[in-house]
Amino acid sequence: MMKRPILLIIVGLVALSLIFYIEHIDILADIEEIRNNPIKERNELNQFHTNTYFFDSLVSSGKYDPAFEFINKIINNSLHSDFHDNYIFEKGKLLFNLENYENAKRVFTEAINLSDSSHLKSFVWRGYSFALLGNCDSALVDLEFAVNRNPSFQLDYDKVLGHCGD
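and the corresponding C-alpha cells:
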C-alpha cells in the first residue's frame, strides 16, 4: 500500500529533475566554456552578470532612458564578447515590456542572427512580439522552432496558440 505514494514521489522528482536539466542547458554550456578557458570566460561571465544586474536595477526602478543608454553602451563595447547576443536580448526584453513590439521583434532578430539561431529565448520573445503584432503565423513558427530544440518552451507555444486562436 505504501509503494504507490513512494512511486509517485519518485516519478515527480524525476520529472522535476528533467525540467531543471532542460531549463539549465545554457548554464551548463557556460560552465564548460569556463573550464576550457577559465580566466577569460570567468571574467566575461562575471562582467555579464554585473552588467545585467545593474541594467535590471535601472529597469525595475523605472529609469528607462538610463537603462537604454547603459545597454546600448554595453552592446557597443561587447562586439567581441561571447555575451553580445545576450545583451541585445536584454534590450529586446526592455522594448517588449514597454510594449514596443515592432522594435523588440527587430532586436530579437538581431540576437538570433548573431547567435547562429541558437538563442532560443530570442525566438520565444520574438514569437510573442509577432503574436501581439497580429502575425500569428510567424509567432507560431518561432515558438515551434524553440520547442523542437527545447521542450521546456511548450507552455510558451501553448500561450501563443491560445492567443492566436482567439
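(Above: one complete record from the training split.) The chain has a mean pLDDT of 82.
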